[in-house]
From TrEMBL, chains A, B:
InterPro entries cross-referenced by the UniProt entry: Homeodomain-like_sf, HTH-type_TetR-like_transc_reg, HTH_TetR, Repressor_TetR_C, Tet_transcr_reg_TetR-rel_C_sf
Protein name: TetR family transcriptional regulator
Matches recorded under PROSITE patterns: HTH_TETR_2
Top-level taxon of origin: Bacteria
Domain HTH tetR-type: residue ranges: 13-73
Annotated Gene3D superfamilies: Homeodomain-like, Tetracycline Repressor, domain 2
Residue ranges of DNA binding: 36-55
Keywords: DNA-binding, Transcription, Transcription regulation
Pfam families linked: TetR_C_1, TetR_N
Annotated SUPFAM superfamilies: Homeodomain-like, Tetracyclin repressor-like, C-terminal domain
Molecular functions per Gene Ontology: DNA-binding transcription factor activity; transcription cis-regulatory region binding
DNA sequence: TGGATGGTTGGAACATTGTTCCATCCATGT
DNA sequence: ACATGGATGGAACAATGTTCCAACCATCCA
């Protein structure tokens, strides 16, 4: 065993990058709650103390993991033609990322001061600038887009937290939404008419479409305000 | 001591309502992290086990506390003239609630399936219906408004988590935003032009104005889409 | 009226977590 | 060869949510 450890030392040297990578593996495979320093230490065949030499604390680790994912999304989305397309590509990419790594949604919405969020803000901001929005309105428009994204990210993450890692997520998800809808249908029709109406559509609705519809809505509002202010 | 307890029994009988009330007191006075079952038990002069007789677990307790606050907001906001005004009143009320009880923001954004969120959805939904939005578009519009609200709620809550309960919040907040802005200004101008531009406005900006601006933006988008589809 | 009953209570005990501490290791430079 | 200090592994600590259980006491029945 000691020999094995010795042999591994060279190739297995601990590092922030390797730790973040392992954390992402655990998060992806077993969900948000599964990431503990003990599980991480076991996965890396070391002790928890050693991890703290490279990583300040759990918050930092989660922020680093999240940034790792978001950075790729933003880089890919940057290759678009019009500013509108880039924004929609970023939204699409973010959706894919959260779909593939549900914990990213929770982490993004929980901690808005982390670097990953700053990345999103810069990416969205530069495109909003390119759209010719007057400077004093840019902040509000970007915040609206960003908050909407983070808000929905949190919601999807909460949904995913309920059934962590299943083979046929689509099926499980639909069953779950069906159960929620059924519960909503039991509410008093006089007190909750709208929710009951939504319940009918809930199990069939497409998350991605909903996400992009929200983005388009905000962009449309932005344009209508621009037209209003221009002439 | 035993006599005292006996005497108190009658007036002090434990109940879900009294527990929720005490939880809100602790959350308001000492912040999100301060609510533990031990602190709660001490505050109620009982043991943690007794609390579990009335309350399933901490999630349930937090959801109940949140709903207690949100219910009042929605009831107050319902007294408005036009649907637009009601929506803005709800947003304003929600902002006040989060401003006064920052933990509400965190709780709302963390758990979208709790009853408080359903309340918000019903409240917003009925007004959107009243605005004459076509039924198949209602779901997306309401989700957009709701997600934006929850997203920004989470952000404000995260901000408040950094300085839990201070006498002059306004001062502390400004100092904190100033520190964030200063950090942002240190970023590479080539890589983060937009963030650096925002940093200049950050410490002075008005949260409430920003919140309502987002609502108006989405409402404007909704109207422009309506006009587009109608004629 | 007195004893049984079962809804409540209080607090000890447990499992799990993030984090700290420290004895030990080993590649490097002298 | 040997001292040094960056890295490591794992034990120990403090805090938390939750469970468990002995004791309590108002109520109901005999």
């Amino acid at each position: 065993m000691t020999a094995k450890i010795r042999a591994e030392r060279r190739t297995d040297a601990l590092s922030k990058a390797r730790i973040v990578e392992a954390a992402i593996e655990i998060l992806d495979k077993n969900g948000e709650d599964a990431l503990t320093f003990r599980a991480l230490a076991a996965h890396l065949e070391t002790g928890s103390g050693a991890i703290y030499w490279h990583v300040a604390d759990k918050d930092y680790l989660l922020a680093a993991a999240t940034d790792h994912i978001v950075a790729r999304v933003m880089a890919d989305a940057a290759r678009g033609s019009s500013p509108r397309d880039v924004i929609r590509a970023m939204a699409n990419g973010l959706f894919d990322a959260i779909d593939g790594h549900p914990w990213v949604g929770g982490q993004l919405s929980r901690n808005p001061w982390q670097y990953a969020v700053l990345r999103l803000m810069e990416g969205i901001g530069s495109q909003v600038q390119a759209l010719g929005v007057p400077e004093r309105a840019q902040f509000n428009v970007v915040t609206a887009l960003l908050s909407f994204m983070l808000g929905l990210a949190g919601q999807y993450a909460a949904g995913a937290r309920l059934f962590p890692r299943d083979a046929d997520r689509a099926e499980v998800r639909k069953a779950h939404l069906g159960a929620v809808a059924a519960k909503w249908m039991e509410l008093d029709p006089a007190e909750h008419p709208f929710v009951r109406q939504v319940a009918k559509v809930l199990p069939e609705h497409d998350d991605r479409e909903q996400f992009l519809a929200g983005i388009d809505l905000i962009l449309a509002g932005m344009e209508s305000i621009q037209k209003l202010g221009a002439p």
